[in-house]
Amino acid sequence: MSTQDIARMDTGEIVSYEPVTPIELEFMIRELGERLERAVPAIKQMWHERYEAERTLLENHAKAMLRSDATTVAEKRAEAMLSTMPHRLDFDLKKETLHAAEELQKALAARLMGLQNINKVLGQAYGASR
Fold this sequence. Notes:
Helix content is 78%, strand content 0%.
C-alpha cells in the first residue's frame, strides 16, 4: 500500500480512506502520526509570520498617525486605519491560515485517536478469538 491511497502527494491532503485490515489500520495510524509531527515546524513558522505581520501593521499604523495632518485624534486614527488596510489584510490572512492549520491538526489528532481506539479493540478481538 502506498501513501497515495490515503493522501494526495501534491498537497498532503488526507483523502477519504477507511482502512479495512489491521495492516491498513496500522499504516494509517503511522501516516497520521507522522503528518502531525511534520506539521509542527510549519505551524511554528505560521505563528512567526502572523506575529511579523502584526508588528508590521502596528508599526505602520503608528507611523501613519504620527504623519497625519488631521486635527483630531479620531481623524488621525481613521486616516491611519485606511492607509494601513493592506497590512491589516496581510495580518488577517496570516491569522486565518494559522487557525485553519491548527483546526486541521485537531481534526487529524482526533482521527488518529479514533483509529488507535479501533486498533486496540481489533487487537483485543483477535486475541479473544484465539
